[in-house]
Amino acid sequence: MKAFNDLADFSNEEIQKLLDLANRLDKHPEPDALKGKVLALLFLSPSLRTLASFQAAMTRLGGGSFVISPDMSIHGIETRPGIVMDGAAAEHIREAVPVIASYGDAIGIRAFAERRNLDYDMADTEFNSMTQLVTTPYINMESAIGHPCQNLADWKTLDDYEVPANGGKFVLSWAYHPRALPLAVPASTLYTAARRGMDVTVLRPEGFELPDAIMRKARDAAAANGGSLRESTDRRDAMQGAHVIYAKSWSSTRFYGDKLGDQKLREGFEDWCVDEPWFDNADKNCHFMHCLPVRRGVVVSERVLDGPRSIVIHEARNRMLAQMAVLHQMLGASS
Ligand code: CP
User: Fold this and answer.
1) How far apart are CA 61 and CA 105, in angstroms?
2) Quick check: 335 pLDDT over 60?
3) Which of 154, 193, 163 has the alpha carbon at shortest distance from 321?
4) pTM of full prediction above 0.85
5) N or C: which end of the chain has fewer CB within 10 A?
């Protein structure tokens, strides 16, 4: 495996193989599988789960890892192309990335969306400009438009809880958040549920439509895998018979890059906080999922998050197992 960037790059059989491997490594640890291998981790955006789970994954497989982030005492890093570097930054990403990559057998890169220009972010411009600089295999640890490690962990979580693939009802719901958040998780989660063959509903208020290209990619995946995709602004309609609600806030595409416009729009939707009444007409075992971190009492009520519907901790642990499977294949340990 040369890159782990998007589940769309993998066949259904390849995804199933990764899921089987993640389950196998959970039950039958392989503490020497990646002995002597090194994973370089470049975090240009903050993290808890991704940072810790990649380090834990490498350690559990017998390898090592190192982390570079702007919070450490490194030289200031410039990311803009074609810039005269007469300001604070002493090092450009064009040298930093290949140097960091050269110390490892693979590199993981996290770089969130700039959230200034939708086309720039939709093209994953910054992430792609960095991966072009490396010759080692690379892993997308969340870019402007993708979060494949989260997606693989979420797929495993749905399997673990025996949520039906074909016939399973998956609601991706926008939730209130005080800030405009990136599209990476909603876009790639939508694709994942559709790719799994589920009947997917995007529940969101007016103004928070996902971009056409994201909807089209998910719709095609659903059609190819026996699922379906629709949108709704009506909570009761969307939640009818739902097996899973996956909450996530995202930026308004109408006001992308316009902080004030987005803020004004979202202020009207503070009641989009997932709470027990949302589940009135859902399947009685309907699960609550979220990639974390999550704001209690803002995105979801405490009683849902701390209650039996919530599977967020299991979901977060699956990050480590999913990544162990990716690393096992990428770094040559898989037969
Ligand atoms: N879900 C996720 O990627 O968490 P972190 O941002 O903490 O890594």
Assistant:
1) 14
2) no
3) 154
4) yes
5) C
